[in-house]
Automatic annotation (TrEMBL):
Role noted for this protein: This protein is involved in the repair of mismatches in DNA. It is possible that it carries out the mismatch recognition step. This protein has a weak ATPase activity.
Keyword Nucleotidyltransferase tagged: no
Descriptive protein name: DNA mismatch repair protein MutS
Family statement: Belongs to the DNA mismatch repair MutS family.
Record-level Gene Ontology MF annotations: ATP binding; ATP-dependent DNA damage sensor activity; damaged DNA binding; mismatched DNA binding
Keywords: ATP-binding, DNA damage, DNA repair, DNA-binding, Nucleotide-binding
Any one GO cellular component localisation term in the record: cytosol
Gene Ontology biological process terms from the UniProt entry: mismatch repair
Organism listed in the record: Pelagovum pacificum
Residues that, per the record, bind ATP: 619-626
Domain DNA mismatch repair proteins mutS family: 693-709
Highest taxon listed in the record's lineage: Bacteria
Amino acid sequence: MMAQYLDIKSGYPDALLFYRMGDFYEMFFDDAVAAAEALDIALTKRGKHLGEDIAMCGVPVHAAEGYLLTLIRKGFRVAIAEQMEDPAEAKKRGSKSVVNRDVVRLVTPGTLTEESLLDARRHNFLAAYATIRDEGALAWVDISTGALSVMPCTAMRLGPELARLGAREVLLPEAIESEFADLVSDLGAASTSLAGSAFDSTGGEARLCKLFSVSSLDGFGAFGRVEISALAGLVEYLEITQRGKLPLLRPPVREGVRASMQIDAATRRSLELTSAMAGGRAGSLLGTVDRTVTSAGARLLERRISAPSRQLDVIRARQDAVAFAVEQTRLSADLRDALRQVADVDRALSRLSLERGGPRDMAGLRNSLAQAEQIATRLDGVDLPDLLREAAGDLVGHDDLLELLDAALIAEPPLLARDGGFIAPGYDEELDEARRLRDEGRSVIAGMQADFVSATGISSLKIKHNNVLGYFIETTATHAEKMLSPPLSETFIHRQTTASQVRFTTVELSDLETRILNAGSRALEIEKRLYSKLREAILANAAVLSNLARALSEFDLATALADLASARDWCRPQVDDSRAFDIVGGRHPVVEDALRKDGAPFVANDCDLSSASIHLLTGPNMAGKSTYLRQNALIAVLAQIGSYVPADSAHVGIVSQLFSRVGASDDLARGRSTFMVEMVETAAILNQADDRALVILDEIGRGTATYDGLSIAWATLEHLHEVNRCRALFATHYHEMSALAGKLEGVENATVAVKEWEGDVVFLHEVRQGTADRSYGVQVARLAGLPDAVIERARVVLEALEKGEREGDGSRQAVIDDLPLFAAAPKPVSPVKHQASEVEGRLRDVLPDELTPREALALVYELKGLVR
């Protein structure tokens, strides 16, 4: 056995080997040590190899999926070796014969299909990158849904595109793996190298044509050699991991490079588009706006937020669909109720194609077809917008398949076909008979006994059973003579004579006995055969079922965005091909949602970059600058996915690229300080942004010396204005930069308003024209809880520096040299005693719960008099 294990393991040196032994998957040697640690299970030993104990651990087959998920999340790959024959067959070859085993599947992060291993509301993409000379292409597939796409992709665009997809695993040719492995790892994906032959475009084209049963790929689009190379790498890897059982793949779709808004990885993290900084959906834009009721609808929303469209006709068609759902409130509610009963059609199809599905997947498809029929009936005669009208056409035409599944399946079938009991009574006569014999064997025997009594006239005749003879007919010796004589002897066959009884059988009874004993297994075999036929019927309709899934997700997303817009009072934005960006009463959707839960209002703000394309924003920390910057970027994203937006009104000219450099972070693993990360990200913006880009920058240059930082920030803003000529929001604490508004025609100053009250700063969160008079840093530090001694010392230093700068009586260093040192053990600073006002004194004695409305009103007038 161990020789067989080592032989199989040699073919998968980089994967843990799950070696099937009865009801367990066993692991040995180093695999056992690694798995036991990762899974926190017992590590034991089994026998010896080369004089050393063999480490061993195992997991139950019935619970294997949970362990697989843990291993995949921890970066392992798992090869699953199953028993390919019944142990009884192996014993026929000899008592020491080993059961034949072979790997049936290689489980990797990008090839998961099981429902328990996947997030139903997110895609699980496997990507492949290929290069031919100076050209590159990226292909990707979600084998759990069959979606297959490809696009031209330069090396510079690879990072942003992988970040958009959130790919779990990336395939790279061996020749370029070292060049891109770090990039892939930084994005949280696993990289897998394949031999260059896997990406051969000539052989790959033939393999793709065979896969899709076509003579040429031209019917799917005009694919370049490098794009075919990337697709070939994907298909080769799927054949390796699925051991020849390819998933049900849709024909490849070629995506245009300029079809969607370009957003790099740093911007996605900064804006928390699909995942929050802390991880997970909660707190992200996706988590806040997702009101879809189907898994496919949720995945469609994620795709659109990850890649907002740049095509006006596409955006407007989506807006029309949402607007229709907003106006048709009752219809939208009915549609959402029906959609809640819809299963995940794409993933059910994929599991069935890979023979990992079951009766419950079939029942889900049946229910989805029934709901689609109801939705189509509800929409009959309704004037739909173009996008929904096209989708509605795919909801019908499935009558034959629905009728088949409805007749064949019970209402609530079991998860696995091997459990049986999922075929409805009355669907198959042979199955009904087998079940009747299995479940009602005694009554069938009783009926046969009654028939024998009637035929012989012997009322004492009985049909009995024992473990030696099985079923037999028993009568007394007195009546036996009659049965041993013609014509009854021709039917009844003598089997045994005892002291007082004689036992017979008949051909009919023997046949019935065989059928009763085998009825359970026979019923299960019949069900398995019928299951295979139903599976074939479903897969024969795979293309139209995929279209049905797409149609249902379109209705789900349109009604979900409409529900959000109505509940949150969002507006339909005007999106066109201009350079306009005019937001009135804009709000941050995520922050507003969080404040609403706390019962606090959100202060809305305007943003008009139509005339002055760059706004230089000043104001203290904590005043809301970062929220303001991000909310306008998120409004652009929402507008270009076709959604309504959180504003009173919005006019957005198409944004081609979105860049965000907000917040401080470092990259210690790669030896980059916070300032270096900031400069690398800023360089990417300045080198790539075009005149249709939207750029938001916060505190550029704050990570270095004051004059260095000011110089970098100044030059960056000038470059954005003169070279990139893009729309931008530029937040800074360098108030000196406000002078640029008078020098550059497209720059305008704006500030976040604050109010100072008795030494404290009050944040108003209002963005106004103008500049901040100062940064209020000391006041913010006080709010943060710095010790009073530190705050008072900071005030002294600040006043000295500001005085020296105003009077111009020396350099900043000279002023610093004249400051007395901060005492090592400072005297306790007595906090400034606050003198209670008359209003406060009066309010101290008021008990609000005891005031009548009239008394409360009188109190207000009294306090107003005291203020005067």
